[in-house]
Each structure stands twice: as structure tokens, then as C-alpha cells.
Amino acid sequence: MNRDTRITWINRLLLPLLNILTAFAATAVVFWLIDVNPIEAAQVLIYGAFGYKEGIGYTIYYTTNFIFTGLAVAVAFHAGLFNIGGEGQAYVGGLGAGLVILFLDPTLGAWVFIPASIIGALLFGGLWALIPAYLQAYRGSHIVITTIMFNFLAASLMVYLMVHVLREVGQMTPQSELFPTNAWMPFVHDVAAGFGYSIEASPLNLSVLLALLCAILVWFFLWQTRWGYAIRATGKNGTAAVYGGIKPKRIIIVAMCISGALAGLVSVNELVGYQHRLIMDFHLGYGFGGIAVALMGRNHPVGIIVAALLFGTLYQGGAELAFEMSGISRDIVVVMQGLVILFCGALEYMYRPWLIRSLAPVNKQEVLVGAAA
Amino acid sequence: MNLIMTDTFAIELTDIDKRFGAVHANNKVCLQVKRGNIHGIVGENGAGKSTLMSILYGFYQADAGQIDVLGETYTFTDSHQAIAAGIGMVHQHFMLVENFTVLENVILGCEGGALLADGLAAARKELTRLGDEYGLKVDLDTTIDQLSVGLQQRVEILKALYKGAKILILDEPTGVLTPQETEELFRIFNALKQQGVTIMLITHKLREIMSITDQVSVMRAGQMVAHRDTQDTSREELAELMVGRKVLLQVDKKPANIRAPLMKVKRLTVADSQGINRLKDVSFELRAGEVLGVAGVSGNGQTELLEALSGITPMTSGSIEVLGFEMDAKNPLTPDRLRELGLAHVPEDRHRMGLIVDFSASESALLGYHTDPKVNSGIWLSNSKVEANCQALMTAFDVRPADPQLKSANFSGGNQQKLILAREMERNPDVLLIGQPTRGVDIGAIEFIHQRIIDMRDAGKAVLLVSVELDEIMSVSDRIIVLCDGEISGRINTADADERTLGMMMANALDPIDPLQTMDDQQAFSKQESNQVSSQVASQENKL
User: What fold characterizes domain A20-368?
Assistant: First the structure.
């Protein structure tokens, strides 16, 4: 194996693995500090996520959200943009899906409702990202700042709409009326029952297939089309891209809209697939989680699916942990996620110099030749 | 080894050996540099010069061998020890803090205490002395960004001397200088030599080796292949020793068959983001069947010229007519549109613009052409076609290794450059803009690249060649325009040009030429004008 392939594997596999293990080790220390046996906790967590059929359903259900937001962050990242606005885009995407369903004639069939709600989520999520994209491309404001601000704007907007406009008549809770059953994304257990298999009921719905389809489409788009080439070229070297006739402003707009649209699809899984009504705060944590998922997954769809599964596991297993063990609240999931984000995101390259030094020592001649050139 | 022998050598390297993995960078290298001499080291990229100097300066440790400096044996583990032993290094890229004054830069790293005042006062005294002694005059209170490149280099030399250097190593010191600044630098070298300072000069400019050094050593493929007294050798012999075969130093070319203009540039002005004009009223014509050279010290508008002509940088005023299409500030043509029309551009900086170092070679070879129907079927960009295209380019231009999947960053500079040239030339453009085609490229590849440029010319294409290498401009181009401070400061036919005239033009020491007067074709480059230019040179000389 030459040095390059070794470095590639260090980056792709070894580094994320070590980071995750470090995060787990740190979590174990936290457990130990609050007098919880870490090994026992790990057992409960893994059992909760994979030990029984309903748990698996929940795990994959959560994973679906993380695939959408992970892909969203990755597409923007390949264009050299850091989209922190996944939260807001998912939330507003939900508004799009919900409005489409609530305004369509309830007697229409699922074949109209489901594609229409998906398009609604895509459009609203994409448009919510279009504004920061426009501001970056044509007005020079920074995408990180604007997308963060747009998360708050989305939250305020939704509070207003849910409380004053979309609240179900005669109800105190800020939620919309129930979607007509035709508009529900079919549950996996229902579909399986239709084929004669019996599966425990869980929120897992066919959105997971949509997520996998999106992963394939994102891969195809980024690596097998000229537009993907233009996006990646812009992300890697903007100056060279301009030289190559690529228009960076257009790239910013396109990449951010795709990114926002993908984030918007979280609502298809959450609202169309499970809640079956427009509710508040269904999106919380998935947008930010997507950043960690994309980082861990090296911005590649395959990596993102794997990383999303890890986050789904933590979500579901953590919930189980809080339920099963005394002295642990659900907040521990947030701590665990935080540690994973810390070690996989912020401290991503902590082990890299050490790994490269020990597993792929530098061939200095290359460096010299490079420097001389 | 007897004492007198060692004492005459400033540096004595014995059997220095260094491997990096499979690469034998230095293979039993021996070198003796006499005290108070100017010693040149030449060799192609990758010949091991930089490794050897890095070992001498303490960046790397040799696997085997002995280093003697001024008669004492050392084992350097870092550059501080080399500095303490009396070695100073002036890097190709200056290590200066731009918004510090000269004085502050010099004391950086040896401030002499927590409070600066004492250190600064002492340094001022010492630098004034050094300046007088070696003729290294610089205003100590000017900030670096106010200084010309030549003066910045002088600060680097002062820095080394201030730290007590008895031996100065200079890596490609003249790459960024005008001929006049180079002369000035060589004058400083001689002054330093008079004071007993030993100078090691690493360069690929054989002409400079011949004019300034006392001895020269040639490296090839990690070995020292020859040591010569400069007076006993010639450029041809050195080039042959470097490459290992005979090299054509002059480009072999037929007289140009110049035809209709394909590009007319009229009063082109380009301002940067601060609103400062980087190009002012530049007018010229580029005709089919010629190579028009653009000479000038780097940073005098060449980059802006190339980028404006290729549609990358918007122009402020003026107009460009290219291949029958007109563009001006209000109606720009984009880089992709210009490419469609048949304009190709080899950018000056291959890492910044020419390719994407993180991309595979095949992806870099697609830059600018990713919408070409040849590699796209519907929405699908065919990676196999992209790779086949790259493979063909690699074969045509002998890019090594010929592996389209290899990351662009992992090719040597010369091979990266050949890949870019292949990409731009193999599409058979009508107008070709080339910036610094041989920067950091081996001598063997330079010959190849120059030949390809001449081939384009002979095929009736119009070539604009921007280069800071006067040798290259003079040997490849048919006509020359000189840029100084964003203006055309001289126009001359290559046949009438000599280095001195061009040097004067580059420094804008000749009377400025009215842009309107020279805008019209043919006349601009008539014999008369070049005669006028030479008489101006003559009158300048008389004044001196």
C-alpha cells in the first residue's frame, strides 16, 4: 500500500473510529462520575437500540433524519460552504409539507399527497436556504452567520404560525389538525403486514427509502455530473473554478438550495411519516447533528449513512437508557452527542499527525519536490 | 586531513547520504567550498540541491556523512545550531513580516530582552555598521511593504549577517529581480566577498553562474556529477552535465509568418478591489502566427493582463476584440464563453488557478471543459471518458507518471505544467495566453514546452507569452511588449532586443511611449522605433 492510500484509509476509517472510541471513553468517564456503571449502561444502550424489533425500528427512524441533514451539510460543504442552518431549513421544510397537505383536498389519494408533500418540504427547505445563499453570493454576508440567524428566524416564524394561524380550531396546543390518512407516509410495519410479514409497530416509515434514494442521488450528482464537478471544483479551489468558467455565485445558490431542500426532508419523516400533523420543534437537534454526521462521514453518502446510523443508535439507545436506569435523564443523550461532536467534529484531526507519523511516515523528497515546484 | 587544508574551506561536506523512503536524495555527496568564494550549485529540480542545503542548514539530518564548517565538525539537529556555526540562509520566498519595519524584522528572534528599546538601539547601531561595510543601504524605519522586492531581499541578507553569518546560502535569489536589481545584488555579493563572506548560490540560471561565481558544482539525480572552476566551463557544458545529455539552449525556430490580428486590445484599464489601476491604457494587437512576449518584473500588471484577457477579472475601461467578438466593461465575455470561441489560457500560477491539487489528474485535466459534450451524455459525466481524455493528453505531452487517477498534487511541477499545457493546447485554440510556462520546470521539460509553443505559432495560432524570464521571452517570442507599473513601457521586435534595452524598459527608464501613438499595428514595431529606443538607451548611457 503506498503512502497516499494509507493516508486515505487513515482519514476515512481509522480516524473516525478512533474519534468515536475517544468519545465513548469520555462518556464512560462521565457515567463513572455520576455513579453509573459504564459497561452496564453500554449494554442497556445497545439493547435499547438493537435488542428488540421495536427498538430497531426507532433507531432506523432516527437514522433517517440524520441521513437527510448529513447529506444537506455535505452538499454545501463540497461547494466550500458551511451550512449551519439545517435546523431552520428542516423546520420550514415541515411548514411546506404541512401547508401542502392541509390545503389539498382531503379526498385525494396517497399518490398525490405524498409526492406533493415531499415537493413542499423540498421547496420550502430550499427557499429558506436560498435567502442566505443569495446574501452570500451577491451581498457578501457570511453564510455561517446568516444560516445561524435563519435558524432563529425559522423558530420565531413557526411559533407565530403555529400559535396564531395553523392551530387546530378549539385546541390549546399549538399544533395543526391531523393530516388526512391518505397523506400519511406508510409505516414499514404496515407495508410489511401487507406482504404477510409481522413486524412490531414503530414510527419507522418509508421515508427511510427516500433517505437512501437521496444518498444515491447526491452521490450521482456530486461525482457523476458536470454540475457536481463544478460544485466540487468551487469548493476545492474557487480561483481555479472561476478560471475554468464556473460561476461561483451560481454554485452558491444551487448548492445551498439543494442543501436546504435535503434538510427540509426531515419533516417528511417526522410529520408526514409519524406525527401526522404540523407540530412545534419536531426538528430539534437534527440540523446540528447533521453537521457531526457529515464530518464523521467525510461528506460522502456512504460515510454519512454509517454515521447517521451511529447517531440514530445513540438517540434511541440513549432514550432507553434514561428510561431504564435510575440516575440518568434523557439529557445524557445530549451529553453523549456533544462528546461525539466534540471529538469527531471540533477535534477531528487530533490524532491525525500522530497516526500519519506512525503509519505513513513522510517521504520528504516529495515535499521538497513540491516545495521546489 | 591536515590543518591548512581544512582551514581554506568554509564548508566541507563529505559523503553526505540521505534517503527518503525509496528515493536516494543525496548519494555520497562531497562538496568543498573555499572560504571567501562565491560557489554556485546547479541542478534540475529534484536533483538534491534543496535536500543538501536543508541538511547543511539543519532542517534535515543526513543518514551518513560529515559536515565541517569553517574547519570544525558539526552535527546540526536544527537550524539554530547552523546559524550559531555561522551559516545564513536567504530563502526564495522571503520570511519577512510585511507591516514591521526593517529594524523590527531584523531583530525578530533575537530581541534581547522583554523590552524592545535596548535591542532596537543596539540593532540600529550594528545594522548601520553592516550597511556601511557591505554597501547594504536600507532605510531601517521603513515598513517591508513599502520596499521593492530587491530591497526586501537586501533585508533578508542583512538579517543573516546580523545573526553573524560568515557563509550565506541563497536559493534562487534573482528569480524576482529586474536585471538592474540583479546587477546590484551581484555588486553586493562582490562586496561581501571582499569582506571574507562565503556565498553559496543555488540557481538554475546558468548565465548568472557564469557571470558571478568562482566555482560551480553540478548535481544530478542525488549525486555531485562535477565541480568546475567557472572560468574553465561554459553554459553548454553545465547544461549538459545537469541534464545528462545535450540541451538546446536556443529555441530552434523558423521566421514567423505573421498574419491578421486575432486579438485587439484597446486602452485596457483594470482596477483592483481597492480601485487602484493595475493596468493602465494598455493597447496592442496579437496576430496569428506570432508569439508576442510580455516582459516585466513580476507584479507589474502581467497577472491582471492575463486575467482580463481571459475574462476572469472584469475590466474597468477599454475594449478587447477577440476572434471577431467584442468585449468591454459593460459587455464582458465570461471565461467559458471565451473558451468556446477558441481562446485558451495557461495561467501563471498552476496551484492557485491552473489545476485543483486535491483532484485527480483526470479531473484537473477537465477544468474548463467539464461541459464538453464529448465527456457528457445527457446529465451523466462519464468518468471513463474523462480518464481516457486525460490519458491521451498525458501521452501527447509525456506527462509522468501517466496515471489519470493520481492526485494532481502528487505530480512534479514540470509534469503538472505539462498537463495544463496539454489541456489547453490539445483543443487546438486559435488564441493561446500563456503565463510563466516554465516556472519551476526542469531544463529538459523547458525545451519541450518551448518547442510546443513554437509549433502552435507555426500552425498559425496567436500566442501571448507572459514571462519574467528574459531568456525565455527573447528566445521564444517574435515581438515583445514590456509592462512596468501597469503600463506598456516598451515595444520592440525580438531581433532588435537585447537584455540591457529590455532591462531599461522594465524599469521604465526610457521615455514613456504614448499609448495612442503605438496603437496602430505594423508601425508600432517598425525598425524606426526600435532604433529610436536604442538611441534613447545610448543617450541614457551618455548621461551616466
Answer: ABC transporter involved in vitamin B12 uptake, BtuC (1.10.3470)
